[in-house]
Design brief:
Blueprint lengths: L7 E2 L9 H7 L9 H18 L5 E5 L2 H12 L5 E6 L5 H9 L3 E6 L8 H11 L4 E5 L1 E2 L4 E2 L2 H10 L3 E5 L18 E5 L10 E6 L1 H12 L9 H9 L11 H17 L1 H21 L15 E5 L8 H8 L3 E2 L1 E2 L8 E5 L6 H17 L8 H13 L9
Parallel strand pairs: 1-12, 3-4, 3-5, 5-8, 8-9
Antiparallel strand pairs: 2-10, 6-7, 9-10, 11-14, 13-14
Helix pairs in contact: 1-9, 2-9, 3-4, 5-6, 10-12, 10-13, 12-13
Length: about 400
């Protein structure tokens, strides 16, 4: 291996870390009951409210984003409760798997992969399922690149008397997510994507309505220990704030730095940067003569999914990109394996990450037999960045 080669991590999680985030984790560890850490802990809890756009407490757990999703099911679902999981990709199916694990009366409505969940899809699924207590679905479906209109879906769920829980693990910090304004009952997310931290922290916002539903579910037999919302809420509301279990101290220090970067960039600035990065990636794909997976106007700014052209071994693309060009992208999952390639742009990314990745993508497809005009995608991406003016760089620390 060339010792001077540079690796590019272009996956939707884990994502690259800003240097200052990595550096703070190398500092001496703090005692979690000490004032020095409590100050960081309280600052992070406040900063998370800003990112989630909520006045509710953002409950935190030492877990991956799936832990936050499991907390929603564990607290809201008693054995036999009727639950509707509506999915349009691999990660949406996790809600169904979790609901089954907790003994729910599960109704799983699956939308074709590559298409978003339309309001009429949810209307039909609710009508077919009957008396549903909780609807679980996904904001940004990372396996396909699709973004769902969760504000509209929440309105429909509430009109049918159901709560709604949202997987926003990849969406948070990339696209607008108005937890309170859209009346989202539970929003689950994690640290390893647009929040620019390593995996290991899980977050869940919980509305007052969802807290009350959780108390009712406990009376019907719902059980949780580590993910018990009441335990965590009670601790976080103390002054000084506390955690019922040992928090991931080093990761909180990392998140403290990352949240300060987001604050300086501002949420609108963060959303605009991701929109420009996504637009550049998609214009590059089209200029290369390749197709996007799914309707372009339904895509999130988290990841760009590219159809593998006929005659090209789709499973070989990520391997060649990684081993030859030192750019790590993701392939398709399940039925989409070998059919799509996914390039992420959520978190600590700037213009030249996209340009370098597009160049590698051009060479990889060309080497694997696709008729690609080298430089066409790069030129298209450059044009987007020139027209945008800013932002062309990663978030400034």
């Amino acid at each position: 291996m060339n010792v001077f080669s540079k690796d590019y991590l272009m996956t939707a999680g884990p994502t690259p870390l800003p240097p200052q985030v990595s550096q703070v984790m190398a500092e001496p560890i703090l005692y979690h009951r000490a004032p020095a850490f409590i100050e960081i802990y309280e600052r992070v809890l406040t900063g998370l409210k800003t990112v989630f756009q909520t006045e509710s407490e953002v409950l935190t757990f030492a877990a991956s984003g799936t832990g936050a999703m499991e907390s929603a099911v564990a607290n809201l679902v008693a054995p036999g409760d009727r639950v509707l999981a509506v999915s349009c990709g691999k990660f949406g199916e996790r809600w169904a798997e979790l609901s089954e694990a907790y003994g729910a009366d599960l109704h799983h409505h699956q939308v074709e992969w590559g298409r978003r969940i339309e309001p009429e899809d949810l209307e039909q699924a609710l009508a077919a399922a009957g008396d549903v207590r909780v609807v679980f679905t996904t904001h940004s479906e990372t396996s396909t690149g699709v973004l769902n209109d969760v504000a509209a879906l929440a309105d429909i769920a509430h009109r049918h008397g159901a709560l709604i829980g949202i997987d926003a693990v990849s969406a948070l910090g990339v696209v607008d997510l108005q937890t309170d304004a859209w009346e989202l009952d539970v929003v689950a997310s994690g640290s390893q994507k647009a929040l620019m931290c390593p995996p290991g922290l899980a977050f869940a916002t919980v509305s007052d309505r969802a807290h009350e539903a959780a108390r009712e579910a406990r009376a019907r037999g719902a059980r949780s220990y580590y993910f018990d919302w009441e335990k965590t809420l009670k601790g976080q509301r103390k002054r000084p704030a506390d955690s019922p279990f040992t928090p991931a101290v080093t990761l909180f220090r990392a998140l403290d730095v990352a949240l300060s970067m987001i604050e300086r960039e501002t949420l609108p600035g963060v959303f605009e940067r991701h929109a420009v990065l996504a637009r550049a990636a998609r214009e590059a794909v089209k200029a290369m003569g390749l197709e996007l997976f799914g309707p372009e106007d339904e895509n999130a700014n988290v990841v760009t999914a590219v159809r593998v052209p006929d005659g090209v071994d789709g499973t070989a693309v990520p391997k060649l990109m990684r081993d030859r060009f030192r750019v790590t992208v993701a392939g398709g999952q399940a039925d989409l394996k070998g059919k799509i390639v996914r390039v992420a742009h959520c978190g600590y990314y700037g213009a030249f990450d996209i340009i370098s990745t597009v160049a590698a993508l051009e060479m990889a497809f060309r080497e694997l037999g696709a008729e690609i005009s080298l430089g066409a995608g790069v030129a298209a991406a450059e044009q987007v960045f020139l027209e945008a003016g800013v932002p062309t760089a990663q978030p400034v620390g």
